[in-house]
Amino acid sequence: MVLRILSIRFPSFHTALAVGVALSLSVGRSFAQTPVINTNPPALPPTDTLKLTINQADEQFKAHNLTVLATQLGISENKAYEIQSQLRVNPAVYVETMPYNQQTRELLPFKQTNAQQVVQVQQLIRLAGKRNKQLAIARTNTELAADRFYDLLRTLTYQLHTTFYDLFYARQTLNVYNQEIATLQQTVSLYQQQFDKGNVPLKDLTRLKAYLFSLTTERQQLLRRLIDDQADLVVLLNTSPTAAIQPVVAPEALDRFTINSLNVSTLVQLAEQNRFDLKGYRDLAKQEQQNLTLQRAMAVPDLTLQGTYDRNGSYIPNYFGVGVGISLPVLNKNQGNIQAAKVRIQSSQQLMSAYVLQVDSDVEKAFTKAVQTEQLYRTFDQRFNDDFGRLIDGVTTNYKKQNIDVVEFLDFFDSYKSSQIQFAQLQNDRMQSMEEVNFAVGTNPFQK
């Protein structure tokens, strides 16, 4: 359908007005040809528009997101703690001398015959493999840091993808509003001119203005949603706040998402293998078991080796001696810490089992929602919008012939808008449900 502007003398004003309104209200494929009044906010300069596919957004996110980069440093921090846990205890040196010899009245005497000096060297020897057990705990801490990092990556990637698709389909919806508002503004302007001349009733002009106001209000709410999505993507991608992010989605990129080839049992197995938050609970349970082993080792006292040199303080002038020291595990056998470690093992095991159920439930819920959304999407007739466009053409023709009034025409006009917006929302819901499956599983099960 193509908009045609004709310069014809009509026998009556009402016939001319009907044709003018019908032409200005033509929708569907004629929107691209209709002169549009620019009611949008000022567009950003071309250099401020950042066009991104979903893969490009992922690369930008992983390379520049500050939260991801900061959390990744936690892995390096814990690796440094591993190095620290491998170090042995430093030796201790003790030196003693006389500050003043009362017999010779010498200050700080160091002569062989008139002073005493004592030098002791001590070295702590940790027994029962404490150092290796502490190293094992430190390595598990590094694994926990990695679990937190990859789980954060999963969470933020989910937020990135859902916001990306929401912004993409919101922009499509905004185009529908812009087209309808621009067309309706032309109609209201024409009706206002004829109302001022007394040729049309006030009730018809009021209905048109009310509907135009309703469209403008709905578009304003949509713009607020666009602003929120835009701000979220700016933070996630760590890009300039002045850059207008424009998602680019190719139709073939959406076809690879199909839930029909998947089943919930396979997805549950994938989730239990790939969910790093679940792995974190498992590593925590493992660390509690390692802590019990360490606490039992702590009940074994450490050994202290000592070497002593004493000049002029013993029965011989230069005394050399060696000694061994160890505490007696009679009163303190680390019983409390061992008991606490056993309780923490039980607690961690229960938390892990509970979280396994939570993960399985998340997968089941996401899969069910995705199946329902996919079924609705597949049953939608893709030709519906084209058929509706042809129906609008027929309505326009009938309105031109004055077979329907302005109220009926606006009803079809609103139905066309609703169908376009609902279809965009259905597509958005489908992609949101697919991303929820990815999030619940912890990996992309749609990859071929």
Write up what this structure looks like:
Helices cover 63% and strands 10% of the residues. The longest helix has 67 residues, at 130-196. β7 and β8 (318-326) form a beta hairpin. The chain has 2 domains: 13-88 and 126-299 and 334-441, Outer membrane efflux proteins (OEP) (Up-down Bundle), CATH 1.20.1600; 89-125 and 300-333. The protein has helices at 13-24, 54-64, 66-86, 130-196, 202-237, 251-255, 264-274, 276-298, 335-379, 384-400, 406-441; strands at 49-52, 92-97, 100-101, 106-107, 117-125, 244-247, 303-311, 318-326. The protein is elongated and about 130 Å long. α1 (13-24) packs antiparallel against α4 (130-196), α1 (13-24) packs antiparallel against α10 (384-400) and α4 runs antiparallel to α5 (202-237). It is built from 11 helices and 8 strands. A 4-stranded antiparallel β-sheet has the order 2-5-7-8, with no helix packed on it. It has a two-stranded parallel ribbon with strand order 1-6. It has a two-stranded antiparallel ribbon with strand order 3-4. It is an alpha+beta fold. Residues 1-32 form the signal peptide. One of its GO terms (molecular function) is efflux transmembrane transporter activity. InterPro entries: MdtP/NodT-like, OMP_efflux. This is TolC family protein. Keywords: Signal.
